[in-house]
Amino acid sequence: AQKVTQAQTEISVVEKEDVTLDCVYETRDTTYYLFWYKQPPSGELVFLIRRNSFDEQNEISGRYSWNFQKSTSSFNFTITASQVVDSAVYFCALISYNTDKLIFGTGTRLQVFP
Amino acid sequence: DSGVTQTPKHLITATGQRVTLRCSPRSGDLSVYWYQQSLDQGLQFLIQYYNGEERAKGNILERFSAQQFPDLHSELNLSSLELGDSALYFCASSSIGRNTEAFFGQGTRLTVV
């Protein structure tokens, strides 16, 4: 069975603070893919990153960085120097090679205050 | 703009009615996913089609059905609607499926009154 757990329901920070959103996943497959999506107040879901299970390199894109650790089944997302525009709900998702089901975590609502 | 088009954007209907939600995937994408997002349940996977065939099924009610047509657009049919079916319904498409990212439409907000 597949499962994605985002234990942090809501996080509030002040602008310029760094914040890390946690994601823990479960799957029995050795080949799988992990994703992060952003859902701003306007409601659309915006793709941020994809990572496959064979690539444990961390990735940095501007103020965003992702830490993938297979040993702890985690795929955490860090925003450095947060901005008000980062306020959104962030979803972690998983699809395993043998299931075709793209499963989402329950999301973490991030509020960045000025 | 993700390239995925969903219509209508908003829908208000009465209990017991039937509605059809439409999704046009990105050009060239063969895979279509449907999700339901309600306040208390997050993003629930409903069903996935790949090139016209059903590939995976989630927690989709028997009152709900979907199909993907030869031109790759997809429709989600919701019947005998209940108040609890009020939610945001998303369609997403991807080029292959498992190892490519899915791009989401803007969703259809369904309100059942």
Structure notes:
The complex is a heterodimer of chains A (114) and B (113). Chain A has 114 residues and is mostly beta strands. Chain A is built from no helices and 12 strands. In chain A, the strands form 3 sheets. In chain A, strands 2, 5, 6, 10, 11 and 12 form a 6-stranded mixed sheet that branches. Chain A has a 4-stranded antiparallel sheet with strand order 3-9-8-7, with no helix packed on it. In chain A, strands 1-4 form a two-stranded antiparallel ribbon. Chain A is globular and about 45 Å long. Chain B has 113 residues and is an all-beta fold. Helix content of chain B is 0%, strand content 53%. Chain B contains no helices and 11 strands. In chain B, the strands form 2 sheets. In chain B, strands 2, 4, 5, 6, 9, 10 and 11 form a 7-stranded mixed sheet that branches. Chain B has a 4-stranded antiparallel sheet with strand order 1-3-8-7, with no helix packed on it. At the A-B interface, β5, β6, β10 and β11 of A face β5, β9 and β10 of B.
Kindly list the characteristics that best describe this protein:
heterodimer, A: 114 residues, mainly beta, 6-stranded mixed β-sheet, 4-stranded antiparallel β-sheet, 54% strand, globular, B: 113 residues, 7-stranded mixed β-sheet, 11 strands, 0% helix, 53% strand
